[in-house]
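Mods, move this if it's the wrong board.
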Amino acid sequence: MTRWKASAFHFSISFAVLAGLFAIILFRWYPPALFGMAKAGPLLAVLAGVDLVLGPLLTLIIYRPGKKGLKFDLVVIVILQVAALAFGLHTIWQSRPAYIVATTDRFHLVFANEIDPASAAKADPEYRDAPWLGARQVAAPLPEDPKARMEAMIEAMTGLDIHVQPSKYRAYPGPNRDPMTAAIPVKDALLLAPRDSRAILQRMARRHGNLDTLALLPLKSSRGSAGVLVERHNGAIVEFVGIDPWPIFDAALRARHVDTRAPDS
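Not the wrong board. Structure tokens:
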């Protein structure tokens, strides 16, 4: 076997392993609509670059049929490659999407490394450990007690927002339907959306049948934003939409402001 064939063989094995790992990462942690807003592309590109270049390139450089100590050299290359791959996967694992949290007027995508450890330690057992296979949908309603609500607001001002505190998590959808007070019916959202977002939103909404049953809410994260299609009657998440939701909600806010200022007829 020539060194070029050896390098190509090494590349094909590396590619197959990486493709399997990427399939798990993309389909479980980063669904298509969340991929862009979660900025997963650069992380995966670095991982792919290191894994597909490091091993095959070193094999190309050192491989020579009959070379003394060749097996040892190849084993060292594989160890280095596996170590680099493990480090990259650990980085992605630490920053994986963990929870989709419904709050007062929106959803938050919370990454595993953003969760407050002290709050997680006090949480219900089902929320103490971040999910392994995909972000879990939960709610984090504001406390009804005025004193507890004030404490939550103070914590938010110090950077400890309610959506990163698992001790505040509850089931979703459930009794808490706070986000739905800010939801925009899809038919209205289509009128308010910029042209590029309107086409995406319309195409995705039509896949789910009657537009009258759907509404739009924003999904915010520390890395970007997206939209969320929800059922109007219970707030259940239907699908994530890869658009910037804020122009739609800003337009809706301006429209409501104009309506409140309109003179009585």
